[in-house]
Amino acid sequence: MANGKEIWEEIAAREAYFGVATYDKYLAGGLDEKAKAEFFESGREHVDLVFTELESAFGSLGKPTKALDYGCGVGRVLLPLAERCGSVVGVDISAGMLEECRRNIDVAGLEAFELRTDQEFVAGKDAEFDLVHTYIVLQHVEPLIGYRIIEKMLKSLKPGGVGMIHLTHTDVAPIFKRLRSRVYRDIPFAHRVLSLVKREKRPFIPMYSYDMGRVAKLLESNGCLNKISIPTDHGYSGEMIFFSKNTTLTETSLAMSERL
User: Fold this and answer.
1) Which of 91, 114, 199, 259 is surrounded by the most beta carbons within 10 Å?
2) How far apart are CA 14 and CA 11, in angstroms?
3) Cβ neighbours, 10 Å, residue 138
4) Rounded CA separation 158/97 (Å)
5) Cα–Cα distance between 231 and 135 in angstroms, integer?
6) Confidence at residue 138, expressed as pLDDT on a 0 to 100 scale
């Protein structure tokens, strides 16, 4: 299959908003001002939920100094995050998504933001953020890469900081649909050829399952032991995991981190 960057550059060029939220009203052919307003309002509702859950679990957040939105896409979540935080960093694998995100930021008149590529994020310093966040993103990333992203996000979180990571773990579709998705995902050009035959314009967006036990070990080894989760269903069963980072890592956690 094409690598992740190629896939997401193609999606950004053809269907950037649908690539973020896969509803027909967000397809380029029908994305009017009403649909676009609904798209960004859904991001605001999500951020409200995230803050409500984090504050319910860990106490008032105040105004986080610096937040991270990994997989920011066109800015659906980044924009309302920027209103609640001193500054926000948006990261995405696609240059096209980042360009559209910048346009939306300019329209909103936001100033306290920074956009980075995924490579710039990986090369960035640890213990940088007070809040880290990723939603409906890692489900589209091969897990071996995704685990490294999670590790970097956790290392980028300051002691005492909070975060939310969303992951999928079980494909609940009927077996035929599961097999078809695997073929589209893992065999180069399979979906593209079929789309040409059927004149289907929707891009194929790959989905992956994560080992939640391995994720739990990553959280623990990086000092993020106090967590709650909310189940999600986007065709795959998943979880929104909310956590805070201990002010110090225990010796056990440090030893586990070295083994992972």
Assistant:
1) 91
2) 5
3) 25
4) 27
5) 13
6) 96
Residues in the chain with pLDDT < 70?
Answer: 1-3, 173, 175-203, 248-260
Q: What is the CATH number of domain 4-259?
A: 3.40.50.150
Q: Are 61 and 54 in contact (CB under 8 A)?
A: yes
Tokens of 44: 């605001």
In angstroms, the first-to-last Cα distance of the chain is 28
Q: Residue 206 has what pLDDT? A: 85
- Residue 98 has a CB neighbour count (10 Å cut-off) of 21
Structure tokens, 13: 């060029």
Place of tokens 């998943």: 238
| Cβ contacts of 123 within 8 Å, gap of 6 or more | none
Give the separation between CA 141 and CA 50, rounded to whole angstroms.
22
**DSSP code string of 186-253:** HSTTHHHHHHHHHT--SPP-------HHHHHHHHHHTT--EEEEEEEESSEEEEEEEEE--SS--HHH
pLDDT tens per residue, range 84-121: 999 999 999 999 999 999 999 999 999 899 999 999 99
Number of H helices, E strands in the chain: 10, 7
CA angle 146, 69, 51 (to 5 degrees): 115
Bridge partners of 70?
A: 91
Q: State the pairing for strand pair 157-171/236-244.
A: antiparallel
